[in-house]
Amino acid sequence: MINENEIYRAALIIKKGGLVAFPTETVYGLGADAFNPAAVARIFEVKKRPKFDPLIVHISRTEELDSVVQKPSGLINSLIDVFWPGPLTLVLPKKADLPDIVTSGLSSVGVRMPDHPVALKLIEMAETPIAAPSANPFGRISPTSAAHVKKYLGSSVDMIIDYGSCSVGVESTILSLVDEKRPVLLRPGGIPVEEIIRITGPVYPPDMMIADVLAPGMLPRHYSPRTPVRMLEDYFYKPNDSKKLKIGLLSLKKPMESSRYHAVEVLSESGDLAEAASNLFAALHRLDCAGLDIILAEHMPETGMGATIADRIRRAVHE
Length: 319
Ligand code: TXA
Ligand code: MG
Prior knowledge:
binds magnesium ion, binds threonylcarbamoyladenylate
């Protein structure tokens, strides 16, 4: 059951230009009124986020799209029909009225309708689209519980709405339709790309030469624990390593051999990739807090949600 009184208080905070951390189906977001530039500026301060990294705008009804983007076409409407509310962010040409700070000065904006009763109620009660990045300091692992947010941001936000853990557990898939004839996958995420292709036909990788798609969500090092992360298959054990080093393992299923590890996180006993994605960040948070010298990550199958898990692990490994 959602607590409408609590959400109403949160909505008042948003209306007054404050910051509210709130749950979505993907990860917890750090929200402000998208049309209040001073409030949005505080998001960047609290997260220590570079000003060139644009935010995602969250809406609760498709009619609200008109206030942030230019008229969507047929293909965009088909995507919205199939995937909203849900973990798909569409990057579309923005309306001039939307403050430039939200989009880091880009002429496009990322927008999505989250599939979460608290997020939808909050946007509805705040009576404004809510700009929200993930509620973590820049470059760190996204929060999938209110406890993660509290630990990261604590008193620097005006309110944290606790609604347990996030069911999808990884951030939204981001698809740019700035050029409708050339859909570009900016970030794999909560909806497998195979499902999107069924509606759009081929999608393209980002063209690094075009400024509009250069966004730090795509920086190789992102979503990182403090503890170094390496791919298990690239790691060569030296004699006595497991005595000298505290090694953690991130694996899909139960490993055959676990005695050399100080801590083991199994993402899904049955190897279910959606379940594994929903556990990924919480597992990384736990491993990061376990006082380890190194975290070894198993290679994930790159189909369906596996591609998203593999993407986040690659970014965590990168230094
Ligand atoms: O699931 C999610 O998407 C979560 C929840 C809270 O909705 N939000 C999220 O936001 O992951 P954030 O700020 O961590 O990631 C936003 C990323 C940016 O780093 C950038 O890569 C991309 O979205 N983005 C946003 N607007 C864009 C634009 N106009 N053009 C290109 N990329 C954009
Ligand atoms: Mg983020």
